[in-house]
Write a structure and sequence with these properties.
about 220 residues; alpha/beta; 6-stranded parallel beta sheet; 6 strands; about 40% helix; about 10% strand
């Protein structure tokens, strides 16, 4: 099997086990405004940009006929909770080994994440191995028009690496991210979120794996 032209990685829930911590922060923030979130609602937030998530939570609060906070008011509650939690996130199984293997092979790598640059720096600080991924497209990148599930973040990452999406492998965990990577034209490897309904993922994706360790034999 030919090696990919590049590997494009999501971050949250794929390289770092942050998603339960993100969910906890959104849950506490929404609860502060009187609207606890159900598990399927928390899954809808997974993989999306912070501002997109905030707008979605505001819509749920509005639909419950409660006083709707501004985005700033909602994030003022959510962000300190998230920041305290996210620095505790451990690596996902196989993540360090896969990054190391890509580095050994000289494969170009990029982060294609919905997280802001500030949030990525916070989460990555305890994990120096992530410094190997030098190219990064963040959720607040000035060149990024739309967040996941739109394909823009993967298209921009591939463009900056000088490769085509169709020749690249993308790695995702969330339904929103999987849809984005597939729409960009990548070969998509999905490590499904353990609590996600399988029907939320694109049916066209056949590379569903239980951990990133399973990719290593493909890079021999």
């Amino acid at each position: 099997m030919a090696h990919p032209a590049a590997c494009l990685f999501d971050l949250d829930g794929l390289l770092l086990d942050t998603e339960p911590l993100h969910a906890q922060a959104w849950q506490q923030a929404a609860h502060h405004f009187g609207r606890p979130l159900a598990d399927p609602e928390l899954m809808q937030l997974r993989g999306r940009r912070r501002l997109d998530c905030a707008e979605q939570v505001r819509e749920w609060i509005r639909a419950s006929q409660l006083l709707v906070p501004s985005v700033d008011e909602l994030l003022a509650i959510r962000q300190p909770i998230a920041e305290a939690l996210l620095i505790q996130a451990p690596p996902m199984a196989g993540a360090q080994a896969l990054i190391r293997r890509c580095l050994e092979l000289g494969l170009p790598m990029a982060l294609a994440t919905s997280s802001s640059k500030e949030a990525v720096n916070l989460k990555a600080k305890p994990h120096p191995w992530l410094a190997a991924i030098e190219e990064r497209v963040h959720g607040d990148d000035p060149e990024l028009r739309r967040g996941k599930p739109h394909p823009d973040v993967f298209q921009l990452a591939a463009k900056r690496l000088g490769v085509n999406c169709k020749d690249s492998w993308a790695f995702e965990d969330s339904p929103a991210g999987a849809h984005a990577a597939l729409a960009a034209g990548c070969r998509v490897f999905v490590v499904p979120a353990p609590d996600a309904d399988p029907v939320l993922y694109p049916a066209q994706i056949t590379d569903r794996i239980s951990s990133l360790d399973q990719v290593l034999p493909l890079l021999n």
